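the four lines:
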Amino acid sequence: MVSTPSTPARLRVAVAGASGYAGGEFLRLAAQHPSLEIGALTAHANAGSRLGALQPHLRSLADRVLAPTTAEALAGHDVVVLGLPHGASGEIAAQLPDDVLVLDLGADHRLASAADWRAYYGSEHAGTWPYGLPELVVADGGTQRDRLVGARRIAVPGCNVTAVTLGLQPGVAAGLLDPTDLVAVLANGFSGAGKALKPHLLAAEGLGAASPYAVGGTHRHIPEITQNLRTAGAHAVTISFTPTLVPMSRGILATATARFAPGRHADADELRAVWEAAYAHEPFVELLPAGQWPSTAATIGSNTALVQVALDEAAGRVVTVTAIDNLVKGTAGQAVQAMNVALGLPETAGLVTEGVAP
Amino acid sequence: MVSTPSTPARLRVAVAGASGYAGGEFLRLAAQHPSLEIGALTAHANAGSRLGALQPHLRSLADRVLAPTTAEALAGHDVVVLGLPHGASGEIAAQLPDDVLVLDLGADHRLASAADWRAYYGSEHAGTWPYGLPELVVADGGTQRDRLVGARRIAVPGCNVTAVTLGLQPGVAAGLLDPTDLVAVLANGFSGAGKALKPHLLAAEGLGAASPYAVGGTHRHIPEITQNLRTAGAHAVTISFTPTLVPMSRGILATATARFAPGRHADADELRAVWEAAYAHEPFVELLPAGQWPSTAATIGSNTALVQVALDEAAGRVVTVTAIDNLVKGTAGQAVQAMNVALGLPETAGLVTEGVAP
Amino acid sequence: MVSTPSTPARLRVAVAGASGYAGGEFLRLAAQHPSLEIGALTAHANAGSRLGALQPHLRSLADRVLAPTTAEALAGHDVVVLGLPHGASGEIAAQLPDDVLVLDLGADHRLASAADWRAYYGSEHAGTWPYGLPELVVADGGTQRDRLVGARRIAVPGCNVTAVTLGLQPGVAAGLLDPTDLVAVLANGFSGAGKALKPHLLAAEGLGAASPYAVGGTHRHIPEITQNLRTAGAHAVTISFTPTLVPMSRGILATATARFAPGRHADADELRAVWEAAYAHEPFVELLPAGQWPSTAATIGSNTALVQVALDEAAGRVVTVTAIDNLVKGTAGQAVQAMNVALGLPETAGLVTEGVAP
Amino acid sequence: MVSTPSTPARLRVAVAGASGYAGGEFLRLAAQHPSLEIGALTAHANAGSRLGALQPHLRSLADRVLAPTTAEALAGHDVVVLGLPHGASGEIAAQLPDDVLVLDLGADHRLASAADWRAYYGSEHAGTWPYGLPELVVADGGTQRDRLVGARRIAVPGCNVTAVTLGLQPGVAAGLLDPTDLVAVLANGFSGAGKALKPHLLAAEGLGAASPYAVGGTHRHIPEITQNLRTAGAHAVTISFTPTLVPMSRGILATATARFAPGRHADADELRAVWEAAYAHEPFVELLPAGQWPSTAATIGSNTALVQVALDEAAGRVVTVTAIDNLVKGTAGQAVQAMNVALGLPETAGLVTEGVAP
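prediction for all of em together
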């Protein structure tokens, strides 16, 4: 594309953790974003490597060489993206100027409760940043989007959290669902586990296998889901949360169920009306037509969340299913969306809603 | 192997529906069974075909030609296996002699309640046969195994039903779990859907995709689960049941959760003790060591069910996870096991407990 | 994006066969193309259906209803895309005005030889259109790109053909390779087989399986490869061509080998120099650095072809490997690229070079 | 099974490398073998671990604890299986008594040429043992089977080697094929790469991807293929050999092509007759009916090799395709088969010919 005089200046973005899946996905999206110019790329163990050797799908950046992740390397950019292991963001972020927009793809700044942080992560809390889920309903009015305008620090939500929150929040916000006995089971693609070299993440092990992990209330995304549903209006939240690895590289399918709140009920049409109202104007969340169920395949590469809700009258439960691409709406696309809101760009800039399927 | 004078006579088995996944899997197992001799093989649309063209993995039977499925073709055998679409078994079975052991791999004869049958299957009930889940706890003592000895008609359980029942029944039988608010979500391999030519079952669609089906209380396995848990001692059962297709050909991973029954509680060790006691002597059900979670990969090709149970104190739920091969412990292996019991053969004859992994 | 007075008028495109994989992929790309506006969508068996029910990933078009495929439905557009079974394009195309750009994603108009057409397709030849592979080297100078400028009928190449041609043509065009004993073996994703409901295309069959098809010189892409390599300068071409289905939805990995032409030889560096020169200025074909081999994963969703070439001195063969996304560079992206050339748009408009990985 | 007085004494087998894929697969087969009793299990990095934590599919051995791999630990067995990285077998084997049958699943003792060993493995040659491919045709009469009777050291062949050799050898042995311009391209499951923790072997990378490795004549299986085809009668062998990783855990599909030897030709029927004659009496190699092509799925878990051959008259090449399970006929099943021959047991003891499909 030829730049014309009226083209706005590009914003320079640096990515720390450019060799990882989260950082790589941000770069894929950034390469299509009309307002971004890709600046410094850094890594830890992979510093000194050519990006093309590590992320061969990022063709236009193949010859970039990764610098070590330091505040110096990240200086001089308008936007800095941190795709770092949890615990590593705080120190780097503290060294960046206040007027730089910092997007933390990791968990460090998501939780408001330092106690929760310590309980689930076992380290000191780095502090709390504005939470980057624009669609999150805020009980006292509006959405989290409003709180992101002008923000210069954004904690990008967890992938599982995004899927479960988007599925359940309309009913929770409406007081229709009982948030004290939620049950969520997820099918997760392997990229959600990152590039860690662990035996159970090998292809030979994962192909043809489904297996759960972090069962029994230990997963670190639990307090984040709880926090979100409280933001949406729940007084107390308890959730049984079980992720399962299944043989796909991307995608989360979250099945989350709830009973009606005491004294509340809705028939199937009323139920759909609540979800429809919640997402009617959301560009990236779509309630599917009645009877059509989400497939992760339809979301791959896109920032779309597909949601469905149904009533199981006999079981006394509302069943919601949400499909997202864990690396896009679950991570890097969410970051771009939140960045767009923070910077006053069109919220959909640089993002697509069409998945790469089949 | 050369037959010696002391070798017991082989039992002749006929398989109706030999071109389908259930019938084919029975044949795979039958080919290894020390007491079976494979007789007539029949099919409907595929009658006249060479088995090797349809089931190329069944090498020793490759040159067999499929006969049309009729009572005549199935006559003269000691055991008849029906791997037919639901609704088709009743008529054939009625024409077979009473002293022939008939194993129905389909649903027709599983439900005791004709009303349930009509509600979920929409046709006339074919009647109820002894239910072929040997490990099913019977509230008034013993297991379903006892009821199978000498049986000549056996309704082989549904695959999802087997996984969910084995996961939950120890706690239900012990009165520890509240059976009125169960939630089960399953990851299912595609062979569970059979060989039906439907667009969503195409490989191009299924590879890289997770998607739910029969959501909201409509799945036909629900009344069968309910029936089993009642047999195990529950007075009333309600279950939210959601299966999801994931990209594997075989395997079911069932995550089933429950709250404690009113007034009951157990810590993690007590919980495990209940499950351990239930399955300590079962050759095909294994409670994994604490902290190790089932993977479907470990069960492929075997008649093993791997079970784990954990307590999520914060969520107030007990979480059970069960992995099986849907075609073995979920269908054909279960049938062999039940047949062994019925005929007085060693229960493990012709079955293996080691999965084909990775 | 808001249209400003200086925005060029959008070109209206109609897609026949919008429910298939090829048509669907063209729509996915068209939705991102700055100069296209999506008009009529038609189908045959699926006429009357909502697109969202058939192609749930095409969110922005979900509510479009498919019209029957007729010349009337396709009238009044600037561009018409035909994603039809072979044999069906000719009749429709004959009814479209000469000044409409028609892109045939099917095979009908690719072959110059009516005899080849009859031999491989067994029907009457519909005629020959300009061949839509812009990078195809033309022996008497330039590339096929030159022949596409201003074209109003374009035969979009076959997916396997694209991969094999791009791998081998630099060496063939340079006279370095002997084109009379080529051997190509391909790993193919299932979407290449379309949405046909055939047993061997079921997910249960395809997951965990590799199997060849059209072995022994029967594949219809063979005369098209031959034609291309003749265009690139070969006097005679013979190729052993074996595609194999492997468990992925998208992607082609083509391994194509050749001996040196009589009297010719090159060392590894010289060899690379030939390929480098051929593709140095091609926006969508990339020769990877020495030692790095193409993976289909790096191309998914993009119009990129990744190519590598190596010398196996001991075997006396040059080995080339090419990876593409069969639905993008192999079909719909190629069509967009050729359309861009034909219409004088930037060749890369609406296409990306970054794959969706992992 | 109850042991009767007439039951022959079990042979005690020790497995070194019991935590790897090759060792694990041998154990899976050994657990079904009527004449084996499983003794010591050893490992290197995993010594001290419970086998159930590493190989959860080997249920009957779950509580075994792995000893360090030493000659002492392996002493006192009738059979010792070495599933060790190449280079490690020689030293251990030298410490084992001559009358113990040692099966080396690794490469150390396969090559007769020390020069080839050094060229491809870069270390000192450990010596040459009888080669454990019973079906290998020996040019001066008979098969390799004859040389294995009574052997006490056996080098178990490489997985790729087995597939390529079985595909090509009938034509080579008959002098029908020209062995000096062979081309083989393979689709390989990930278990062939072992449990090594390397980034490209991660599930996130491997799912949805096809990619080649060891391209250009560098793969260590090349001299072994060459050696085999010389044994079968070729005077000189040159082969272009390219393996490709595809998204499956098990299986090799080898497409191997050759031209006719100078002055030789055969039509399709004559061609098939040669292959048919070669394998008519082989229990584990099956030439499929004309027109049916091998799928790896049909071989999983079995010791079967499915072979097909076709004539591509236009290309002037014979195309052979062979499917095996790389861990069974490619490794551990082959070892059991060779062991059976060496010890005078029925060659098929403990092995199945039916694959686990779908």
